[in-house]
Design brief:
Radius of gyration: 19 Å
Number of strands: 5
Distance between the termini: 54 Å
CATH topology: Nucleotidyltransferase, domain 5
CATH architecture: 2-Layer Sandwich
Order of helices and strands: HHEEHHHEHHEEHHHHH
Structural class: alpha/beta
Helix content: 40-55%
Largest sheet: 5 strands, mixed
């Protein structure tokens, strides 16, 4: 049932002859450290709605192995997947996509422009970077001001209701998580490999013990509070 539900928005447009739908999602809007990342993905709807995949869904219980195309049915909100499944699906999505793009904004850019402006820039930039121009865009709730309203659908909980948005959420999260794991090697005291920059107790305790590092967002609380209190930083 999951596959039928998560493809309903795409199927509605596909049945009207629209094939190039870009799903867009972000990761890293709320963390205290690290970049803000947005991905746009145009999936191959001809494969998703092919008789081959439909037949596999009906017959999968009788098969010894799952063909690779069956991975389309595993695409879901990135937060609902294990890291191992996300990694596998991210590779599959990037290989199978008609086109995909990734936009990355540094903590410094987030601080200087603000998260609202950065989000607009990143979403629109991700669309413009696609090598195939989308006929329509799906986002998770967020409206892209530079795109006409008739060419976008802003779906509440879109990463759970649209396979295109879910695919973008997976690509963005895996990309950002890998950055934060690398940042852990440079700044091990904060535990970036564990929380990816989000405000967990472990992270906040480390922040107050060691102070912020260069990838902390200086405009975000409690980083901003720490800097204000320790003006000599």
């Amino acid at each position: 049932m999951h596959f039928q539900e998560i493809t309903q928005f795409e199927r509605n447009l596909y049945n009207k002859g629209i094939k190039y739908i870009a799903g867009i999602d972000e990761v890293g809007r709320g963390p205290l450290a690290g970049p803000f990342v947005v991905s746009a993905v145009i999936l191959d709807l001809d494969k998703i709605f092919s008789r081959e995949l439909e037949q596999l869904i009906n017959d999968i219980d009788t098969l010894d192995l799952e063909p690779e195309i069956y991975l389309y049915t595993k695409i879901n909100d990135s937060k609902l997947l294990t890291p191992k499944k996300r990694d596998k699906l991210a590779d599959f999505i990037k290989k199978e996509a008609v086109s995909y793009s990734i936009e990355v904004f540094s903590p410094e850019k987030v601080d200087s422009l603000g998260i609202s402006e950065i989000t607009q820039l990143a979403f629109y930039g991700a669309v413009k970077k696609l090598k195939v121009k989308p006929e329509h865009v799906f986002t998770d709730t967020f409206e892209i001001r530079k795109l006409t309203r008739e060419h976008q659908v802003n779906i509440v909980s879109g990463d759970k209701k649209s396979i295109s948005v879910a695919a973008a959420s997976i690509v963005a999260k895996v990309f950002r998580d890998n950055i934060m794991i690398c940042m852990h090697d440079k700044y091990p005291v904060y535990g970036f490999d564990r929380h990816k920059g989000y405000g967990t107790k472990y992270h906040i305790d480390a922040l107050y013990k060691y102070g912020p590092c260069v990838i902390h967002r200086k405009s975000f609380h409690p980083v901003k509070d720490y800097i204000s209190y320790n003006k000599g930083y």
